[in-house]
């Protein structure tokens, strides 16, 4: 298996991990919303805030790998999300969840998590496809 | 009340406007009576039975009664000569002889009951005491919708004092038909008096849907206290946990009750009909929770996670140079000292600590036997610790002498202080350490911007930002400490109150975050100077009332609503802990909360119920639950929504929404939102109700809404201007979200009186206290050059003196020979030995005390040709005039009309 195969295998695993984080976020938000399992917004925000930066770092790392291996298509696909994340975490610093505002901003957060979920899902299949293509071309 | 259409021959029913009920007249004999003619004879016996319930020892024997009742309910009805309609009431057949919900035969009893209740707490001066007479009496007639043309109807300030449109509940909705079954509008009111059945109808009508509530409002001297259920028997729905209230139905012969919120059938608690004090059978129908919309339960131990905490005050007093120089320190110490007796302390449990701070923290040990306080200085503000574990927080009664000595001497300790800077953040942390295990109140009095340690703030106000879209960033918290610390406080049920005095930038926006999330209050005295008597008087009065007000602690508030109604957004001072659970560290008096509602699914019930429950610890260490219940009919008729809409509640909703919008978006967006709501409403009204061209029609009961919205747009909180300091804006925002409607409305729509020509009875004592002059429309065209006028918005009073005021007037009111001798600005009006001076003083006194809340508005004398800024400020209360960048009322209406015309309808 060559470099490209390994790269996309890694990307597939990464996308799967990111997928799980998004699902986790959505579940947590739903829990808070329905209020059945009494969920404290303070604890929730503290918990989720631990994951925000690692998630974004993981995505940025993936982009860096694509850049270094000249995978322009994959990089291009990821560029918008990267730009969005950089803006949120580095420039405006609005990435943390605020317990005082959480109920008001909950629909927004949920929507964002769903969009992320969809994006990671699509990119997962794309990486999988690229991995297979890479493997086939190697074996030929 | 009884329906008039089932009269015996020869009788007539006349609707009596003043008493809001039918007067029955026998045409032949000329006899007149309030009672329905059919209900005198057979009902009399039951009424008597009801009068003496204790004497009837057989009441407990439900089974026997029930069996009898079930076996022959029809016969029973047949015996009495009631018209057949009455049988179709949703009645439990087991109770025909004692009680049948909504049936007219109960009337004689309830008329008596009604007379027993003293006059209701009325909106405003109390002259509207009969506002309840139309409530809870069944919805025979739908509310009539009267349209008015705004273009030709001048606004009438009296409309704002009127009670909201009456609530027409379907007959039998309230179990006892008590006039108090629904909470008074001052406790809870809704923007509409009839809830739309579907979300589509709500959207079509464009009337915002929100509750405005003020559960812990103060009681006037003549108002009856909230009834208390003392036997700790609390019936709640098993599923939705709603408290039993006047709108439930008893089923299965009274052994079960049907929840009015979720329709669940619940067991009636065993001791519900038992008088545990005398160990005798009690009359179920005399239980206050079945007849009162506002009621208090004494909570049993299940409602406590720990013993009720004592009332604890930690005063954090700024002792830096600016605080000493402005006289704040001395005034604050004196006020606390003078009010030690008024701080709630019935059980001698109240605890107090005093901590001073500038660049260091000063703790005071208060030993019970020592009269000389000793001071401990902690200068390490980066890692705050308490210098001593005990004797800093002391019992008010035990350490009274030491406290008095300390408060008397504290100002002199720091009289020479030249220290500039404030370690407010560390002081807050120290206070928090002191009381975090019990909760309590931290009262901050500061005259400087925090500069040291955590929570240090920058003087971030940049005049270049004012009036630009970036202005709203100045209205948000400048440091995350004020949010994270507020959450910590909320968890430990510590409530923070802020008294702010800085002469320069204070960053009210950041500092008010703490009271905001911990249910405290913010008070701001810009440019406070103790050398001015008026400044001291205002502060001393407000701080004194604040200390004396009975406060609830460890509060949990839940808002419940019937199925189909979703509480989508909450405004006010609390921390939102779950979708309908508000964590409040304290339950301050006279705070108002706005709750937005959404219709999630079609409502089929004929009426819906809202319930607010506040579980709290009283100042005397009792755990109580205050339950406020409001039932509203539902409707599928759009005109009923308009006819029952409450303009005052809508204005309160708009004010709160505008503040939220400012913080999340921009001031511009907030203004646009207000304009859009009003435009949409007028537009929808035009589409659905009237179609006449060339006019701007609105329901009669909403005619002041456009002016209230204009008042909101012109308010210092929202007005477009590059000159309004962000501190003033931020303070106005905190007031918008906390003031009870009774005070919020004049804050948006000030009152304007002419004093020089007021009718002779004004200023004298009438039936409802001092008689106020008639309010004038808020336009400067009513200002005459020789007149004396008064404008007030509940927080400031302006006395406007025309430049041609006659010397006699000047002599009578100010004891000055001529207009030229008068000095403008804050003023204490002399009380002179002439009738006019006494009347003017009486009017001002009345204005200062007639509304709820601790505020004591200062009086400014404004000379017609005096200082321009003060003159402009006073004139800004006349909101119908054209402002700098804001339209006059007529122009505003024109803009609204054009907007509606341009949308092409």
From TrEMBL, chain A:
The keyword Manganese does not apply. It is a multi-pass membrane protein. It is found in: Membrane. Its main location: membrane. Keywords: Membrane, Transmembrane, Transmembrane helix. The keyword Transmembrane helix applies. The chain crosses the membrane at residues 7-29, 57-84, 117-137. InterPro entries: Cornichon. One of its GO terms (cellular component) is membrane. One of its GO terms (biological process) is vesicle-mediated transport. It comes from the Eukaryota. Belongs to the cornichon family. This is Cornichon. It comes from Exidia glandulosa HHB12029.
From TrEMBL, chain B:
One of its GO terms (biological process) is COPII-coated vesicle cargo loading. One of its GO terms (cellular component) is endoplasmic reticulum exit site. Residues 78-100 have a biased composition (Polar residues). One of its GO terms (molecular function) is zinc ion binding. CDD domains: Sec24-like, WW. Keywords: Cytoplasm, Endoplasmic reticulum, ER-Golgi transport, Golgi apparatus, Membrane, Protein transport, Transport. Residues 77-118 are annotated as: Disordered. Pfam families: Gelsolin, Sec23_BS, Sec23_helical, Sec23_trunk, WW, zf-Sec23_Sec24. SMART domains: WW. Residues 101-118 have a biased composition (Low complexity). Residues 5-39 form the WW domain. The keyword Chaperone does not apply. Belongs to the SEC23/SEC24 family. SEC24 subfamily. This is WW domain-containing protein. It comes from Exidia glandulosa HHB12029. The lineage of its organism: Eukaryota, Fungi, Dikarya, Basidiomycota, Agaricomycotina.
């Amino acid at each position: 298996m060559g470099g490209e195969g390994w790269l996309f295998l890694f990307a597939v695993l990464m996308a799967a991990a990111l997928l799980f984080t998004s699902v986790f976020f959505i579940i947590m938000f739903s829990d808070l919303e329905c209020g059945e399992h009494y969920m404290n917004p303070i604890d929730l925000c503290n918990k989720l805030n631990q994951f925000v930066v690692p998630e974004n770092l993981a995505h940025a790392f993936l982009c860096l790998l694509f850049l270094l291996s000249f995978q322009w298509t994959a990089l291009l696909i990821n560029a918008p999300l990267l730009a969005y994340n950089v803006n949120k975490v580095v420039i405006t610093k609005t990435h943390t969840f605020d317990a005082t505002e959480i109920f008001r901003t909950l629909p927004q957060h949920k929507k964002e998590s769903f969009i992320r979920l969809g994006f990671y899902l699509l990119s997962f299949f794309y990486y999988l496809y690229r991995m297979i293509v890479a493997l086939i071309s190697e074996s030929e | 009340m009884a329906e008039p259409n089932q009269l015996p021959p020869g009788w007539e029913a006349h609707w009596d406007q003043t008493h809001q009920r039918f007067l029955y007249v026998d045409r032949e004999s000329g006899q007149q009576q309030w009672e329905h003619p059919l209900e005198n004879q057979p009902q009399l016996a039951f009424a008597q039975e009801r009068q003496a319930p204790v004497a009837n020892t057989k009441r407990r024997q439900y089974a026997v009664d029930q069996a009898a009742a079930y076996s022959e309910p029809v016969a029973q009805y047949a015996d009495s000569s009631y018209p057949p309609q009455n049988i179709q009431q949703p009645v439990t057949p087991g109770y025909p002889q004692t009680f049948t919900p909504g049936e007219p035969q109960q009337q004689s009893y309830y008329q008596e009951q009604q007379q027993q209740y003293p006059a209701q707490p009325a909106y405003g001066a109390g002259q509207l005491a009969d506002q309840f007479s139309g409530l809870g009496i069944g919805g025979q007639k739908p509310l009539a919708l009267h349209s008015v043309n705004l273009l030709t109807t001048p606004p009438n300030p009296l409309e704002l004092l009127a009670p909201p449109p009456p609530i027409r509940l379907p007959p039998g909705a309230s179990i006892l038909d008590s006039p108090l079954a629904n909470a008074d509008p001052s406790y809870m009111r809704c923007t509409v008096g009839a809830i739309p059945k579907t979300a589509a109808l709500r959207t079509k009508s464009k009337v915002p849907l929100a509750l405005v509530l003020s559960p812990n409002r103060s009681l006037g001297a003549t108002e009856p206290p909230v009834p208390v259920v003392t036997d700790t028997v609390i019936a709640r729905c098993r599923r939705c946990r709603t408290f039993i209230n006047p709108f439930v139905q008893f089923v299965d012969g009274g052994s079960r009750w049907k929840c009015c919120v979720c329709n669940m059938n619940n067991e009636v608690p065993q001791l519900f009909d038992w008088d545990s004090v005398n160990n005798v059978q009690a009359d179920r129908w005399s239980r206050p929770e079945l007849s009162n919309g506002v009621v208090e339960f004494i909570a049993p131990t299940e409602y406590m996670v720990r013993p009720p905490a004592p009332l604890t005050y930690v005063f954090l007093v700024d002792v830096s140079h600016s605080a000493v120089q402005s006289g704040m320190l001395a005034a604050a110490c004196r006020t606390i000292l003078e009010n030690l007796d008024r701080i709630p302390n019935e059980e001698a449990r109240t605890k107090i600590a005093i901590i001073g701070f500038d660049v260091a923290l000063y703790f005071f040990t208060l030993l019970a036997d020592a009269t000389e306080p000793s001071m401990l200085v902690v200068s390490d503000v980066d890692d705050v610790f308490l210098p001593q574990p005990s004797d800093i927080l002391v019992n008010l009664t035990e350490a009274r002498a030491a406290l008095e000595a300390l408060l008397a001497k504290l100002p002199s300790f720091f009289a020479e202080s030249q220290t500039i800077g404030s370690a407010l953040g560390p002081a807050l942390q120290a206070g928090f350490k002191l009381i975090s295990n019990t909760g309590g109140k931290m009262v901050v009095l500061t005259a400087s911007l925090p500069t040291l340690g955590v929570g240090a703030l920058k003087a971030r106000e940049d005049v270049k930002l004012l009036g630009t879209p970036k202005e709203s960033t100045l209205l948000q918290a400048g440091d995350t400490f004020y949010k994270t610390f507020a959450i910590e406080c909320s968890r430990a049920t510590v409530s923070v109150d802020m008294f702010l005095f800085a002469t320069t930038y204070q960053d009210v926006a950041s500092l008010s975050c703490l009271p905001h999330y911990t249910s405290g209050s913010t008070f701001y005295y810009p440019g406070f100077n103790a050398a001015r008597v008026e400044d001291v008087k205002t502060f001393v009065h407000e701080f004194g009332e604040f200390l004396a007000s009975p406060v609830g602690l460890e509060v949990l508030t839940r808002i419940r609503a019937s199925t189909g109604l979703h509480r989508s957004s909450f405004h006010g001072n609390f921390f939102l802990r779950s979708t309908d659970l508000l964590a409040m560290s304290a339950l301050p008096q006279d705070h108002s909360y706005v709750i937005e509602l959404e219709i999630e699914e079609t409502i089929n019930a004929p009426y819906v119920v809202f319930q607010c429950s506040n579980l709290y610890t009283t100042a005397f260490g009792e755990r109580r639950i205050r339950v406020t219940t409001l039932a509203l009919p539902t409707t599928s008729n759009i005109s009923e929504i308009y006819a029952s809409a409450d303009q005052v509640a809508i204005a309160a909703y708009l004010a709160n929404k505008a503040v939220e919008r400012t913080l999340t978006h921009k001031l511009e967006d907030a203004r646009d939102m207000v304009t859009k709501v009003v435009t949409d409403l007028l537009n929808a009204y035009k589409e659905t109700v009237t179609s006449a061209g060339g006019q701007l029609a609105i329901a009669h009961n909403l005619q002041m809404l456009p002016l209230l919205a204009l008042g909101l747009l012109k308010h210092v909180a929202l007005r477009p201007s590059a000159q309004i300091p962000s501190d003033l804006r931020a303070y106005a925002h905190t007031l918008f979200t906390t003031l009870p409607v009774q005070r919020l409305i004049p804050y948006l729509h000030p009152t304007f009186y002419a004093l020089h020509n007021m009718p002779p009875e004004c200023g004298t004592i009438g039936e409802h206290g001092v008689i106020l002059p008639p309010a004038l429309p808020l336009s400067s065209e009513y200002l005459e050059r020789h007149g004396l006028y008064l404008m007030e918005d509940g927080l400031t009073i302006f006395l406007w003196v025309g430049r041609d005021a006659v010397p006699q007037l000047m002599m009578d009111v100010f004891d000055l020979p001529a207009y030229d001798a008068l000095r403008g600005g804050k003023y204490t009006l002399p009380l002179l030995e002439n009738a006019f001076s006494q009347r003017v003083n009486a009017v001002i006194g009345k204005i200062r005390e007639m509304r709820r809340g601790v505020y004591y508005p200062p009086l400014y004398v404004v000379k017609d040709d005096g200082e321009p800024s003060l003159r402009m400020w006073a004139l800004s209360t006349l909101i119908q005039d054209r402002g700098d960048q804001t339209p006059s009322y007529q122009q505003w209406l024109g803009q609204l009309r054009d907007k509606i015309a341009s949308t092409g309808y």
